[in-house]
């Protein structure tokens, strides 16, 4: 009998590709980890499935239960997919100004979407999720404080990149939202080679880039450990959007705004170093941002 894979076994193992034009004349190799190739279209597929599987293994949840999560988009879509795979009900809370594609994708997987205002933002969404849990309406997985989030990257993303670069990676660049990706990968890379530099991306003052946050102190994700990030770049809104459009037109890589920010950071880094192998996380695909008009610039 053929042992066919299930959809959850297709999470991870994403391509790592070399940028051919945008880095220009350089001694560096700039590589993009294409996380949009995951089944639900983003890097968040990894922690979404891991948070559910780990909670199941500890006996904290079981199929049929209701899960709750605050999200700006990608985690919500990934959790909606994972909940559909595993047999859970899911309530997602997100700011109302997020793109229609993301809202529709969550609903397509069967999740219930609850919106908060743009002014309340992700902080308000997180507060409402905890309030609903306190009312007994479900269990919050809490991507911002759940160690199973970075564990997915310590166990999966980091080792994949290490193998794909044959251990030659010198710099790792990732956006900072929940910080799960950068925390898990940093812990892995520092364990195999402490000299690998970890660069985080946050939005510049006034920038609004989906998936990248500059959290108020009270809402800083508890999984975040500042001493594991070597450098932080502030990314301007226009810089992220211009780089995102260039990625599509010059490299054939169709990605979202936060990925544009990450690649802008990787290219900035490439202008500062020599003979480096730079790996940047392209966390999702551009098709979930088309309705915002961001590709029309």
From TrEMBL:
Residues annotated as binding pyridoxal 5'-phosphate: 74, 177-181, 258
Instruction: Answer yes or no on keyword DNA-binding.
Output: no
* UniProt xrefs under Pfam families: PALP
Q: List the EC numbers from the record.
A: 2.5.1.47
Where in this protein does the record say N6-(pyridoxal phosphate)lysine is found? 44
Q: One MF term from GO for this chain?
A: cysteine synthase activity
Name the cofactor(s). Answer: pyridoxal 5'-phosphate
One GO biological process this protein is involved in is: cysteine biosynthetic process from serine
Q: What is this enzyme's catalytic activity, as reactions?
A: O-acetyl-L-serine + hydrogen sulfide = L-cysteine + acetate
Pathway(s) served: Amino-acid biosynthesis; L-cysteine biosynthesis; L-cysteine from L-serine: step 2/2
State the UniProt keywords alphabetically. Amino-acid biosynthesis, Cysteine biosynthesis, Pyridoxal phosphate, Transferase
Q: List the SUPFAM superfamilies.
A: Tryptophan synthase beta subunit-like PLP-dependent enzymes
Q: Which family does it belong to?
A: Belongs to the cysteine synthase/cystathionine beta-synthase family.
- Protein known as: Cysteine synthase
Instruction: State the species of origin.
Output: Aequoribacter fuscus
